[in-house]
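step: validate -> pass
step: tokenize input -> pass
step: predict -> running
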Amino acid sequence: MRISRVALSLGILLPSLAAAQEPGMAVNLGRGLDRGASLGWTFKEDWTLRPTIGAGYSQYSGWQYAVGSTILRSFGSTHRVYGYIGVGAYVGSANDAYSSTGGLGGPNNISGRNGTSPNSSSTLSGNRGSLAYVTAPVGLRARVHGNFELFAESAYQKTLAGDFVGQQTGRISGDTDQRFGATFGLTMRLR
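step: predict -> pass
step: emit ->
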């Protein structure tokens, strides 16, 4: 009997939470564990797909790429403030461990004298190979004016292949196999 009361309570509560986010497109600009710009497509009320297709070039680490996507579920009682949770998977180039410019996954710190690796006789080390990881973000968004929203997101990320860099903006804890960190940013709704 207790299970049916919980189910009834959730059945009454969930429809009131279903209007957190309407279908449409948005551009996200973030800084932290995940940095740069991304596009969010809310394809159904409260369900957003955040695909990533990125490429970059650095004279120190060469070409880098990232491909993947995160699916997010929004919840809240108003359109002005709402939370979200999600899950995603990504593949790409592993970041250069000693590049001052960083890669698509975030900036890195130079750890040796004159910009070199402590264990390297050359100037800067090359790319470290491929990276595949899963992510589980949790965030909060607040509409501040018109179509603009501020967001704060934390995420746990675990590698399936490759290694994360040791130092990165937004990283709170972790090692080369897993990390936890935060991203802060601004979203502009296009519709």
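step: describe -> The chain has one domain: 19-189.
step: cleanup -> pass
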